[in-house]
Amino acid sequence: MRKIVKVKARPGYLLELEFDDGIVGTVDLSPLAGRGVFAAWGEGKTFEQVHIGPSGELIWNDRIDLCPDALYFKVTGKKPEDVFPALRHDSARA
Fold this sequence. Notes:
By secondary structure, the chain is α+β, with helices and mostly antiparallel strands. The chain is built from two helices and six strands, in the order ββββββαα.
């Protein structure tokens, strides 16, 4: 499991992230903005108040949290089975 070690909010619901393995990248969260619990990002400067939780996840006001692994996949373009080889299925056994 990856952990986020640095985060910086940018305009347009963008986040600059650095992970514990040194990977750095930007993720666009604008498709989530204004939808469901993510509507809170539009209240004042809530989006900019992002911080890193104890497990390396991102947290806003203890109401919203995002999994670091999901963000890692967005930044790197990798699939879960690329990061967690045990998820690969041997089609010959199916």
